[in-house]
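User: My collaborator sent over this chain with a note saying "see what the structure looks like." That's all I know about it. Can you take a look?
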Amino acid sequence: MWLEKYKPKKFEEIVGNDTAVRKLINYSWKKPLLLYGPTGIGKTTLVELLSEKFDLIWASDENLDKLKEISNTKSLFGKKKLIIFDNVDMISEIKKVTEFLKETKVPTILITSDFKSRRLGTIKRICEKLQMRKPQLTTIVNLLQKICTKENIKVKSKEVLLKIAENSNGDIRAAILDLETVSKGKEQISENDIEVLVSRDKVGDIYKSLSVILLKNNIREAIESTYDLNEQPRDVLFWIDENSPKVIHDKKNLKKAFYYLSRADIFLGRILKRQYWGFLRYANSLMTAGVNVSKGKKIHFVRYQFPFYIIHMSQTKKERNLKKSIAEKLSREIHDSQKTIINEFIPLFKILLKEKKINRDEFAEHFRFTNEELEIFS
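Assistant: Without extra context I'll predict from the sequence alone. Here is the result:
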């Protein structure tokens, strides 16, 4: 999907907000930093790009009590820890967050799209504040044009991209999603193609959608609650999967809910395999209406949690990239798939190096492994 394909890989690729990027790169970390701005402009992506300098730790309600201990542990590559509170205004035990901020000396970033939230009153006083703003229309249009060029898609007139940019309301993710939607299976796009786009004057919110799906008794509302979300369908499934057990405590009802989620996951897999987006109507109905009719009457009102899977994938991104790089180097002589090398050969070489059956220095020199890559075999 284009959101992942064209996600910035370095600071220079962040669209707009040059001042905010420079300030973050040169920040002294004498105080925690509150990064705020509208949804979809790259706040979390900007923070993720700091992973080369820091070992990122994503804070959630589950690890608030252990944050002190976690922040003092050593990183795999000897880097400093950086604590990230994404959507900090949504964390239920906000007092624990403020207590941590008052005591910690570890670099900390708090991210929010709701700077005016009353829950952030004390946090604002403790933190240095850095604002990210919506990019200009011309900036978004230029980004969309670059994507079209790389995807070999002709644009009949610049008005097409301008209307997509206007419809996104400054949300870069929304603009890329819309461009991918109207370009699917086409070599050229025109103004007629963008008529399918829904106005995003009122952008949906994943937390509101969860409330409709997990708390209300209305199938139609449950299905329609995800229509305006700027979230990938699989990410929506992860949100519902993560929070269903917190709301639905009856085992039989929870089993039904997970049955429908599993069916939705199958259709999402078929979309990726066959590139047929018509299956999305089935996946969306199963993960929304299916869960809605399964929850029963006994439900528990909770603070929704950010999906652990997404957090975990973000935390392990560095290690996965290193393993991929190792696999590329080993494949030149092993002549096997990267997946097989990662799953079978890397563990094998770990054992051989540990048992000193292979000379570590000769092994590193032969395959030209970097120090960080060599650490994977430790």
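A starting point for your reply to your collaborator: The chain has a mean pLDDT of 85.
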